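seq/struct pair 1
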Amino acid sequence: EGYAMTNKGIYWKAIFNKPQHYYFDELVDVRRVEDWININGSYFHTNEKMNYKILRLLKKLRSVYVN
């Protein structure tokens, strides 16, 4: 359980879920749902404070990588 970000994408494993990853140029839908983040339909959660920061970062990266 955890996550990692590289210069190409984000990788994570949530409890009771399969490992997930998306490259930054694949980010289509990034939004907050209740207290977690929905990344292209996949569940992502760390904690409330980090979720907010990661959501902002992913939205900025999406604007850079996805045209």
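seq/struct pair 2
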Amino acid sequence: MQLPERRPWSLVFRFLLILAGLGLFSLLLLACKLDPSPRGYGTHRQLGLEECFFVSRLEIRCPSCGMTTSWSLLVRGRLLAAIRANAGGCMLAVAAIAAAPWLLLSGLASRWITRPPSELVSLVLLACWLSVTLLNWILNIHNI
């Protein structure tokens, strides 16, 4: 039995994979350059960004408060502190650490280095991340 012939990837698709991998690497390198805020949120201010609207006006943390801090902590190997800063952000940083080389190498090789996750697995992972992010927000909303 002969296997079906694999269609070669287009240059555009390969370029997008490489760009995505390099983009994730860039975010991880940026996280290395930032000093994590001891408050557990606010590290993004080092990038010249404004204070979070939720914090400044509503005096509560938003669901993404602490995500930049969690990335900055995780790249330093401080996993528990990263989870405390923002568990959802920590999950995204772990995903970026795994996905960056996978996307870059797959784009360069013009084939998936490992099999991509199925739609069901992707949906379950997205639902888990969203649930963790919202639960983290609910738990932190009163601890400003």
